[in-house]
Hints:
Elements: E1 14-16, E2 37-39, E3 60-62, E4 83-85, H1 101-117
Parallel strand pairs: 1-2, 2-3, 3-4
Amino acid sequence: MRHPGPSQCFLLEALYCTSCAKLSELSPLGECSNLHTVYLTYCHAVADISSLSRCLKLHTFDLSQCYKVTDASALGNCTALHTVDCSGCNGITSVAGHRSEAAYLKPFIRWMMERRDG
């Protein structure tokens, strides 16, 4: 049986992955132009979420306990994003990048700093 390639996932709207220990490569998701919801909870091998910068309809993103993620700046291109859960992602150091960064990311940055500083 042949699996669909990344160019065939343009209809994908939601992806729910929990505790997928071997999931590390997210680059095919960048081709999913209708993707609006992504849950990657406890997917400990995930480190790079940069491909999600092309998911302009993304509005809900949960990467809780994906502790290898250090750069969330890719989310800056996701202008529809309104819900982000990055609890347990204490290594995130970069969240800059949104075109209206001051208004959009300020609550997110404050929340991350509070989580990191205890």
